[in-house]
Specification:
mainly alpha, single chain, 64 residues
Length: 64
């Protein structure tokens, strides 16, 4: 019963590595949109990363 609540990080990481590029682009978009590093560090506000991530995710989703 005590192994029921045990978190196996290696197994979770192996599962995440099998995910598609769309999954990673969506996660990157959510990270950039909610953490907003471009607001904290104006140096990284050169390129609109969220647009590239969102459009890239949609493009890869419908292309593959």
């Amino acid at each position: 019963m005590k192994n029921l609540y045990k978190i196996n990080i290696g197994e979770i990481w192996r599962y995440l590595l099998k995910e598609d590029l769309v999954f990673w682009l969506i996660n990157l978009y959510l990270f950039i949109e909610y953490v907003r590093p471009q607001s904290i560090y104006p140096v990284v506000d050169i390129v609109p990363e969220t647009d590239f991530d969102f459009e890239g995710g949609l493009g890869f989703r419908f292309y593959f």
